[in-house]
Amino acid sequence: RDAVREAHGWWSGSERQRLWLATNALERGLLLAALDLPGASLAGIDPALAALVDWLAHGPPEPLDVAALAKRVGWSTSHFAHMFRSQLGVAPLTWLEARRIEQTKRLLLTTNLAIKAIALATGFRDSQHLVRRFHRLVGCTPGHFRRAGDG
Fold first, then answer.
1. Residue 19: which of 29, 27, 11 has the closest Cα?
2. Are 78 and 96 a contacting pair, CB within 8 Å?
3. What pLDDT shows up at residue 39?
4. Helices and strands per DSSP (H, E), number in the chain
5. Burial of residue 21 (number of CB atoms within 10 Å: 0-12, 13-18, 19+)
6. pTM of the model
7. What are the backbone angles phi and psi of residue 143, rounded to the nearest 5°?
8. I need a labelling partner for 24 at 20 to 30 A (CA). Which of 16, 65, 136, 137 fits?
9. Distance separating alpha carbons of residues 3 and 53, to the nearest angstrom
């Protein structure tokens, strides 16, 4: 719901790039909604991949790369990347980053944690990396997002 509201906000706003921002937010929201359906979204995919996606959805806070994820399921990096994209429709790190951004949004709106603490809790290298990725994907800084959510 939040992603659809965000998409509507961008579409209704006066931003120059509102169509691109609204489309981006809506696509991310649809992806997250599809992956949040218990059982339904992971039905029919490889069990090792389903277990990994479940693990990723509930953590982990540390930064990860494709090689580490592939190793966790016991596949080669190229096989893992191919299977993830073919079965889930998106690259593994794109999916993980979208999850971490959504977790960041929740923490921004529900806690008073500093951006640095949120970055570490959500698996970003540091607060600067979080701010850059957040701004690129959401269209504003985490601080602006938090202030807008307050009022």
1. 11
2. no
3. 44
4. 9, 0
5. buried
6. 0.66
7. -60, -45
8. 65
9. 20
Helical (H) or strand (E) element with 14: none
The helix (H) or strand (E) run that includes residue 15 is: none
> Which among 24, 22, 29 has a CA at the least distance from the CA of 7?
22
The answer to whether 31 touches 90, Cβ cutoff 8 Å, is: yes
Nearest partner of 111 among 137, 135, 146, judged by Cα? 146
* Residue pair 118/108 in contact by the 8 Å Cβ criterion: yes
Helix (H) or strand (E) holding 7, with range, is: helix 2-12
In tens, the pLDDT along 29-79 reads 665 565 554 444 567 789 999 889 888 877 666 778 899 999 999 999 999
The full DSSP string for 31-52 is HHHHHHSTTTTTTTS-HHHHHH
CB distance 137 to 28 below 8 Å: yes
Angle between helices 142-150 and 127-138 (to 10 degrees): 60
63 vs 39: CA distance, rounded Å: 26
What is the rounded CA–CA span in Å between residue 138 and residue 84?
Answer: 24
Residue type for 21, please? L
